Amino acid sequence: MKRLPQIALLPDGKRLHLQDGPIDLVIEAKGREGDVRAAYDAAAGRFTGLLDELCAELVELRRPADPIRCTLKGIVARRMHAAVAPFAGEHFITPMAAVAGSVAEEILGSMLAAARLDRAYVNNGGDIALHLVGGEQFTVGLLDRPDRHGLMRTMVIDAGDPTRGVATSGRHGRSFSLGIADAVTVLAKTASQADAAATIIANTVDLPGHPAIVRRPANELQPDSDLGARLVTRGVGVLREHEIEDALRAGVRRAQQLLAAGLIEGAALRLLGETAAVGATGIKAGAPPAFHGNAPERIAHV
Amino acid sequence: MTDATVAGGDKIRCDACPVMCYIKPGAAGACDRYANHNGELVRVDPHIVLEQTVSHGGRLVPFQAGGDWDGKIVHEPNVFVTAIGAGTTYPDYKPAPFIVSSEVDGVDMVTVVTEGIFSYCGVKVKIDTDRYLGPETATVRAEGEAIGHVTTSEYGSQMLSLGGVHHLTGGSKKEGRVTCDALMDLSNCKPVELTIDGGATVVVQAGYPPIVNGVAEERMRVGCGSATIGMFAKQWHGKVDEVVVVDDHITGVLSEHQAGKLLDIPDTGIKMKGRRSTPGRYFQVADPGTGWGGTNISDPLSVLGPFNPKEARPGLTMLMVSTTGEHAAYYELDEALRPIEKQMPPDLKFSVERIQENCEPALCTVLFMGGAGGSLRAGVTDNPVRLTRSVKDALTRVTSGGAPVYVWPGGGITFMVDVTQMPAGAFGYVPTPALVAPIEFTLRLSDYAALGGHMDHVRPLASLRDNTETRPMPYMPGRRA
Description:
The complex is a heterodimer of chains A (about 300) and B (about 475). Chain A has two domains: about 5-135, Roll (T-fold), CATH 3.10.520.10; about 135-300, no CATH class. Chain A contains eight helices and 15 strands. Chain A has helices at about 35-45, 50-55, 60, 75-90, 100-115, 190-205, 220, 240-260; strands at about 5-10, 15-20, 25-30, 120-125, 125-130, 135-140, 155-160, 165-170, 185-190, 215, 230-235, 265-270, 275-280, 285, 300. Chain A has a ten-stranded mixed beta sheet with strand order 1-2-3-4-5-8-9-12-13-15. In chain A, helix 4 runs parallel beside helix 6 and helix 5 packs antiparallel against helix 6. An eleven-stranded antiparallel beta sheet of chain B has the order 17-16-15-14-11-12-13-10-25-29-28. In chain B, strands 8, 9, 26, 27, 30, 31 and 32 form a seven-stranded mixed beta sheet that branches. With about 475 residues, chain B is of the alpha+beta class. In chain B, a hairpin with a 5-residue loop joins strand 23 (about 330-335) and strand 24 (about 340). Helices cover about 15% and strands about 35% of the residues of chain B. The chains are: A alpha+beta (about 300), B alpha+beta (about 475).
């Protein structure tokens, strides 16, 4: 018997929730009622069996990507490879770095093939594929380091912008990070590209060898992690201000290269209360919330 | 049904989905839905967030008084995060799954949310009935397995103490499983049939009347027989010569009782069976049972001896009533001074109804009781004893599924919670067997830092909203989340 994913509308009756194994999607489409229904049907249809498709090639997906050659067969697997390939020559990266964005993109693609929509998103645990036409826009809220009341930054994405993918990577997420960034949010033309780039930039925000940073081999934590014995960040102690700036500067430099190469549209980097932004005019500080005895937020000048 | 195969070391291989994660003990798979608990694969359910839907109607009426939520978004509803489905990381060498910050009254609050695995846990069941359920310390069984015992009764109620570590893990495997199932069902407000050695069979469901030997109980007594005499003596005065209130504990007799004496009610020559305590108050007029007033009698005259001809007279009237007013009969003495049942006059019927009215509906109530072990506390702070102290100092509020708890004084964090105050399905289990219950610790962020909290794992509330189930929580009087 075929294993069926969980397919349900969320309690608001508007958003569709799809879940299978580790994939958790929240989807919303805007358009005529019939179109929304057709889009949701298509999303559920495409999602069924998608995890099995990926798992059939899981062993290879967990290996470092070849910068040129792709031997993967599945359409999502190939998209994952394509997203990480530009980084594979220089960095260790496996196609798994783009799995969330690639799945989001695939599901959004199936919806758009089935219906005319004004606006839609597929949010795969923070890695988001977007569809926008006409005067529609998306406002994405960025959350600061969670244990401090920092500001909420917003990114507004207009239909006219090239951005159709948003992804966040950092050491607090579900997947491990080689770097120390609390969060790196990337805007890119596709969700899979955003996903891969966020991983790379977050890994680059780092202070190699710093004693306050606790690192553990990934496979000690998760035996079958694609990162193998590579050290992943488990804790960040007290860092001096200039150290925070150094780490952020490394990430910003990488983000600027990716921006120049056309791989991303913009990025916001966050580490221990400091923020740096690269590219994307849409990124702006939102109304700062009331502070309660905390130091005001400082933007790192880099 | 998902199985897991034990791989090298204590790792298990999950086959809930084709990813087939290897999961280390205490860790969760890639999905965060399945975890390895002592080599057993356990399911970790979706997180539930209670949306406190109480609106701020105005200064004088701070809360909407009763009624369900109308479904509309109220003015900035407070969201209270509960631990249901938070998952747990037993043996808790890593921080509790969700450490959530939200702002309450302008103070940065932290709610540390975890699901505790409680081997030391049980339920205390209060069954509002005067009916005899079984002797104290008698074994209580479910599906034939011993799961607890009858404990000291409380006013108008029989008490059971169920579960506990000895039944959960100290007996046979079946005993543990049946105990765990019964505890979980009782805690989740489901009905459970219990049989008491040498006593009754009772169906218990939190928030519902008990069903004793197939009969649903309706009311609990307002007082013992003697107290009932005291409360209603004036209302009977002049309407009837004698009143006997039949009660398993203390049966009261109006003419002999102090209340009757004060009203100058003359002696009637009545002769009670049982052991006289003080005038007009009798112990043990009959054996305990499920008949009149919690005794085993169905004919109230069986508690009387012959009337004394020196004081009794033909035509003397007598009301006999049980302490709950559920049973009542009216008699007149014939020429031979034998009580003959007659139709009850309306004003006496009214007084019986008044007794009934004053007897509250009989309910079963279930308090879950458990102790948060050191490892659970370590999930909250790296110095577990400080959490205990902080709870004792009232800096940290403990809740279970958002419901208020009573924290037992003394060492550790042993708490009790009324399961009807908790959201549906709040309890789960692990195959140990042990119950999984939600527990939340709420404190000021600054206090949390001071007690050695896992500051780097604090997440803002908003980050939970996308991957959690939000349930509207109707306002309940007396309930403060």
